[in-house]
Amino acid sequence: xxxxxxxxxxxxxxxxxxxxxxxxxxxxxxxxxxxxxxxxxxxxxxxxxxxxxxxxxxxxxxxxxxxxxxxxxxxxxxxxxxxxxxxxxxxxxxxxxxxxxxxxxxxxxxxxxxxxxxxxxxxxxxxxxxxxxxxxxxxxxxxxxxxxxxxxxxxxxxxxxxxxxxxxxxxxxxxxxxxxxxxxxxxxxxxxxxxxxxxxxxxxxxxxxxxxxxxxxxxxxxxxxxxxxxxxxxxxxxxxxxxxxxxxxxxxxxxxxxxxxxxxx
Length: 265
What we know:
The protein is an alpha+beta fold and 265 residues long. It has four helices and 13 strands.
């Protein structure tokens, strides 16, 4: 038996979603037939983009933060586009970059979850498995010169241990206790590292859930003042071994701090 499906091949546990079209052309054609070029090109540059996404591990879980703005170039075009996805009771995912690429991955992941549920075998996807699979998908697309212009943060609980990992558009993947993408890697990540180091040095412990949430709120406020592509409405996703929740929040800007910004022309 010959398996021709693009979605499942025996032994292929890292299946990559097929997004292109392959046309087979016979080796010999009649002289009176002309071939029309049917070329589909997309993904060369990001169009509708989102900005930073943040993640931090605390003592019993992981928290992610991302605003809801999608920009069309430099225009704040769509102001209510959430990008924190609850995959299952073990995993939440957040994305930054091209919003349509996030929507594509979201649809594929949700299809994988539906397939798992239909098997009804009591086994659900784990965060490390999704992290590895996403790294293979993004690396596969980058090698085909059709990259997904997105960065993904995968957070979850595996064997009662918090997990947080990042995958960028090149397929580069790593795991850490605090991660920030985009502009947040320059402004928010130092704040997150400082808070985690201070808690470790003073109390030899990790952040609590409330401390992690307060830290992300502080980072989102700093980004709102400094990042022109950020928004005052944002989400914080929190996952522990007992629950998964996504909070919708809004900042209360204090523009009197503008007086403290000096030395710029």
